[in-house]
Amino acid sequence: MNPLPFNIVLFQPEIPNNTGAVGRICVGTGSLLHLVRPLGFRIDDKAVRRAGLDYWKDVELRVHDSLKEALATADRVHYFSTKGARLYTDCSFQPGDYLVFGRETAGLPRELLARRREDSYTIPIWGPIRSHNLANAVAIIIYEAFRQVGFPPKTGDLPSAGQMP
Q1: What is the pLDDT of residue 1?
Q2: Distance (Å, whole) CA 8 – CA 27
Q3: How many whole angstroms from its chain centre is CA 68?
């Protein structure tokens, strides 16, 4: 199992600024970032670095050629989409979980969500928008995951998965 608390998986991300912001969230929460190709940008794109600020160098990053490859060592996987079957608050998180998010314009493949219906979740939307910004959705989910498993005792003391309550 990954020694970091959670694994954030971005399936074919398209917008470098979003990925940079998600990278910064990963650094701030001690989570591992997985990117699944094809990417809509180059990893060394200055927009990625700009959005991640000076934290991009600290991102624990893995780049994969397929979702299957990204999830090869995953014990537990949760999928987040506007088309998820359940509310994200119904998800029971555990350290080491893989949290999968789709492309900004198309989300996760419908056939994947149909196969993994019980593991698919959504963040409710009441206003006239199609979806939340990818980085905002990741932030909502990762902090709900930490709320459930317990926050680190103080700022700067990120626990490893084996240290989580």
Answers
A1: 40
A2: 11
A3: 16
**Cα–Cα distances in angstroms (integers) from residue 109 to residues 5, 67, 114, 116, 160, in the given order:** 26, 11, 9, 11, 31
pTM of the model: 0.89
> So where are the chain's domains?
7-163
- How many alpha carbons fall within 13 Å on the CB side of residue 94? 7
Q: Which residues of the chain have pLDDT under 50?
A: 1-2, 160-165
What is the per-residue pLDDT across 56-67, written as a single tens digit (0 to 9) for each? Answer: 889 999 999 999
What pLDDT does 41 receive?
Answer: 83
Looking at this protein, which amino acid is placed at residue 147? R
Between CA 101 and CA 54 the distance in angstroms is: 24
Inter-CA distances, 105 with 63, 75, 89, 131, 140, Å: 20, 28, 24, 9, 19
Domain formed by 7-163, architecture: 3-Layer(aba) Sandwich (3.40)
